[in-house]
């Protein structure tokens, strides 16, 4: 293959759809369809197709000024001392994540993957929360229950669900927006799941796990899977969230909310983020920006330019994701290695821990051992152990809110990209009861402020305003708001 064409995966979500990235002479990139990719047979969603438009390489910086990589690495090595807190949510390879773990260990710390639910849910459940089920198993299920909106959140799952319907499956969607491919849409609460959904071992539950996931809801879904015998898959927003979880398992983890609280209180003075932009990832962007300003050192090791690289003291710019040597593990547990041979990020970390030579071989061997394979073959999913877990005593209670602004998380939102979908959705009753008019933006107000944004009428549950974009007046996944014209 031509040396400027890379076999890689889309970094947009844990589907990890295969693609080619072609570097052009002017330094920009194009993508090509990789029809033999097992996950997606060459198909990509809007995010994957628009990757060349949205992917901006990072630039190394020291004290906010552009710097050579070697100077940035030296400055980062000096800045990262004992007490530093490390975050890597899964936007890089398992190998780079493991290298960061070695750096963290040398400071007596761990690498936090940001999935707070892992620390709140019994550890015997973690293997089930981590690795899902093969996407092929979705196609052969008799019944599918969706706790996600596949069109918005994980678009390449749609073809799997449509294939299952062709094979005779029925699809039920549970959530605040009706999903057009579902045979039934139900806006029901956890107390009704078991009775109303009537699942069995031929069913499949498709849910989502992200840094803002409510641990109680995760436990409810795990209980539902256990009681019904239905396999469950938790999709993740980050391409290698599963691989990073496998690498980090058994370490005590902090949630991102906890990290922000500890920065606010002055407990955390140095934060090291690897391809993890908390400004983009967390719903309350204002609170994150205010907290990050309180740090003595914000060290960002990253392959792409993003909101956090603008405010970091030190940026260690690594090669783009498609150029990295190493492995990612997608939501179904499939390990995939691209054709990239870059080890800039790993070598940079190697320098910081005094192991500048061939750290890649060491961490790559550790990844293969964790996966229990001699070599990565994307056609074969490694075997994972999923122990039985006990049913958990849990009764989630949602805060009563008259009008709730709810995020419909999608790959654009997780990556801080303002897409042309900058509108909110609500049902017709909400539009008429708030005297809104077609063509005139709706004003949405919370304790944090007010914005005017375009709206669209959709089949959304009463009292819910669904947002495809992050709005500056939100305080969480769900924000209590009022609407006006
Ligand atoms: S479904 Fe996810 S991995 Fe696939 S192209 Fe879209 S964003 Fe990328």
Give an overview of the whole structure:
This protein is α/β, with parallel strands linked by helices. It has four domains: 5-49, N-terminal domain of TfIIb; 51-115 and 241-371, Rossmann fold (3-Layer(aba) Sandwich); 118-235, 3-Layer(aba) Sandwich (Dimethylsulfoxide Reductase, domain 2); 404-484, Barwin-like endoglucanases. Helix content is 30%, strand content 21%. It is built from 20 helices and 24 strands. Strands 5-4-15-14-13-6-7 form a seven-stranded mixed beta sheet. Helix 3 (69-79) packs across helix 17, helix 4 runs parallel beside helix 12 and helix 4 (94-106) runs parallel beside helix 17 (344-352). The longest helix has 14 residues, at 215-228. The radius of gyration is 22 Å and the shape is globular. The mean pLDDT is 93. Residues 10, 12-13, 15-17, 40, 44-45, 47-48, 154-156, 411 line the site of iron/sulfur cluster. Iron/sulfur cluster (SF4) binds at residues 10, 12-13, 15-17, 40, 44-45, 47-48, 154-156, 411.
**Which value, in Å, is the CA radius of gyration?**
22 Å
Briefly note the structural class of the backbone.
alpha/beta
- Order of strands, main sheet, comes to 5-4-15-14-13-6-7
Which sheet architecture does the biggest sheet show?
7 strands, mixed
The percent range for strand residues is 15-25%
Q: Examine the secondary-structure arrangement and name the CATH architecture of the largest domain.
A: 3-Layer(aba) Sandwich
How many E-type strands? 24
The proportion of residues forming helix, as a percent range, comes to: 25-40%
CATH class of the largest domain: Alpha Beta
Bound compounds, each kind once, are: iron/sulfur cluster
- The total count of helices amounts to 20
User: Which shape, going by the Cα principal axes?
Assistant: globular
Q: What do the pLDDT scores average to?
A: 93
Number of domains: 4
